[in-house]
Amino acid sequence: IKLCYAVKANAFIVPCVSELVERLEICSPGEYSICKRYGVPTAKMVISGVNKTPGWIQQVIEDDLRDNGSCHAVYTIESILQGRILENAAQKSGITLSVLLRYSSGNQFGMDAIDLTEFVRTQRESYPHLLVEGIQYFSGTQRHSMKKNARELAAVCKLMDELEQTYGVRCKELEYGTGFPVSYFQGNSFEEETFLQEFSELILPLASTRKVTLEIGRSIAASCGSYAAK
Question: How far apart are CA 84 and CA 79, in angstroms?
Answer without folding.
Answer: 9
